[in-house]
Amino acid sequence: MVLIFTLTQSTHYVLKRYGVPKFTTQLLVGIILGPSLLGRFRIFNYVMSSIKSQEIIGMLSAFSYVLFIFVSGVKMDLGMIKRTGKKALFTGVACILSPLLIGSLVQEKLRRLWLTKEEASIVQIITIGHAITPFPVLACLVEDLKIMNTELGRLALSTALVSDALSMLVIVGGILTKINQEQGIMLAAIDLGALVTNVIVIVFAIRPSMFWVIRHTQEGRPVKDTYIHTIMLMVLGFGLLSHLYGQSLVIGPYILGLAVPEGPPLGSAIINKFNCLISDVFLPLLVTTCGMRIDLSLIKFDNSLMTYNIILIVLTLVAKIVACLVPPLYSKMPLNDALALALLLTCKGVIQLLTLHFSMIPRP
């Protein structure tokens, strides 16, 4: 952990002068530490890849992922969806449905010809990863570009919020489809029932309890640590339940984060307590450990899976850019602004990386 933290901070100190974002720096450090470079040395590989090291890093990575997604949910204001104009609404819907449709068509036409059964099993998650536009990724990008308070930045955030709501439904549907194909419709139905039950408990029991906490907190006084600690225990509990019933381990914590009332005293208290720890310690650890699993020597362009992925990336990217251009241009938005919005919405980040990484975790 000390090595990862030191390398990510020092490397970003050098590369930030050239406009390289933190996410790229963390992924690059992971590749350097992985089997592509330093991992080839026996002594270094023994230290970094020992069973004890892998267990500790794996546990911290899962915890970091859950905490990051929960706090991202707390930061989101679902009320923005009601205030979203037609331009952002239509763009948000189009920017996920268009690449998802194109990716699904490519998947249906080519996977039987080019992919083995094992490779075909992960294709759905890869397609979803190319289609989604996560709000936390775009929020970080807009903040780094210093356009948060511009009209373009606000439009991008509103569009991403709409797209993110649809993305969550798509991810849940994709996982349930995979469970249905691999383990049967009965288990998929049980998992769906468990998910719906969790949502009902969060919306009708836990969220009202949070408002009770707010009412019993004196104005100008901080929320008691007991309440914050209780919420964090629920985050871990819902993460465990999500993983046990076959969904991504962050689905429950994400929904719980959305249920937290925004602003002071509760929402602000959670963000202030954990935001620095997540962004400066846990997130670099998480992204770097994902990068450490990348072996560039395994990339072979004569491989059918690689060819399939290249075709999928190109077609979904083109579909997403076109889909993001049509509604703004129809609304008389200048071409340069519409193109900038489309490029913002097609950027990939930590959520896509982690969606693919943690989807490989075997079902218990």
Got a strand count?
Answer: 0
Order of helices and strands: HHHHHHHHHHHHHHHHH
Report the portion of residues in β strands.
Answer: under 5%
Distance between the amino and carboxyl termini: 28 Å
Helix content: over 70%
Calculate Rg over CA atoms: 21 Å
The averaged pLDDT comes out at: 82
What structural category characterises the helix and strand content? mainly alpha
How many helices does DSSP assign?
17
Main sheet summary: none
As residue ranges, the low-confidence spans are none
Shape, please? Answer: globular
Give an overview of the whole structure:
The chain is an all-alpha fold and 364 residues long. 77% of the residues lie in helices and 0% in strands. It has 17 helices and no strands. It has helices spanning 2-15, 22-33, 42-48, 51-75, 79-83, 86-114, 117-120, 123-131, 135-144, 151-183, 185-215, 225-244, 251-259, 266-291, 304-330, 335-345, 350-358. Helix 9 (135-144) runs antiparallel to helix 10 (151-183). The radius of gyration is 21 Å and the shape is globular. The model has no long low-confidence stretch (mean pLDDT 82).
Task: Please describe the topology of this protein.
Layout: H1 2-15, H2 22-33, H3 42-48, H4 51-75, H5 79-83, H6 86-114, H7 117-120, H8 123-131, H9 135-144, H10 151-183, H11 185-215, H12 225-244, H13 251-259, H14 266-291, H15 304-330, H16 335-345, H17 350-358
Helix pairs in contact: 1-2, 2-14, 4-13, 4-14, 6-8, 6-10, 6-15, 8-10, 8-17, 9-10, 10-11, 10-16, 11-13, 12-13, 15-16
